[in-house]
Amino acid sequence: MKRWLILTAAVLVVIVFGFSLIDANSGGDINAEAQFAAVNMDTSGFARATAPWEWQFPRDFGAHPEFQTEWWYYTGNLETDDGRHFGYQFTIFRRALTPSPPSKTASEWRTNQVYMAHFAVTDVGDGAYYHEQRFSRGGAELAGATVEPVYRVWLEDWQVSAADETAQATHITARSANFAVDLALEQLKPPALQGQNGLSPKGEEPGNASYYYSLTRLRTEGTITINGETFTVSGATWKDHEFSTSALGTRAQGWDWFGLQLDDNRELMLGQIRLTGGDREPAFGGLLVNPDGSTRYLKASDFTLEVTQTWTSPHTGATYPAGWNITVNTGAGDPLR
Question: What pTM does this model have?
């Protein structure tokens, strides 16, 4: 059975470095930018994803600072009334530098949290891609994530914020020199818990997992501005929110992720972790979300991902997959292709 897909795949690889803290009482010019140093791979003292999470929403829309890494990831496909097509991606990442916050001082700059945001728009008709990223510390209100009084995740003036404490309606605003988005999102389905009640294993070793839910279909309306021209758009967005400390095993080489919205009001999350030797991590699977919001966990053996096209970077010579045939055994008769 062939379906039109209205949300493209994304590949997520995150590495965030440590940064130095600034004391406001130290004198001299104050620079709010994060300063990067050597990678700290020590995960001792951080919480690990080892057992199912006791989910509470909207509480769990917010931050989980006891875990080392967290992200809020929005991707969507939008179009104008006359069919001009755009894609967008808005993501904020949080990285804890230490398991515990620093001791309290008079400085509002001192923090053990660093944030990164990435924002991109694709103008499909023009074949143009625009992107920008920012870094900041989680102090002095420069960046953060909260649910009090309402859900809000931000880095400077890039943010997603809820209309009220239920967070059923949210608003994304982000602007750079050449492009911007101003989008209203409405949640149409309850959070879909990935893996085993939200515990998403990425390997056989205990703790190599994340806590992971998705809002798989968010009605989206608003504007996209490119080079001073503003377009009124509508469509659908997918949100992923994950938090973890150590998610990948030592043999992991790459991670492919697909968030697919089907025209029959179902959604699919499919993923694979590529291992050394060419095989695939069997612990990581996918999820089928039904029109009523109910879900079915998909084991790695329930679907196949066949690469049909590749793209070679002219800069590095590296070759990447760029097209796939996907077959899923949904357990309801004929497989979904």
Answer: 0.85
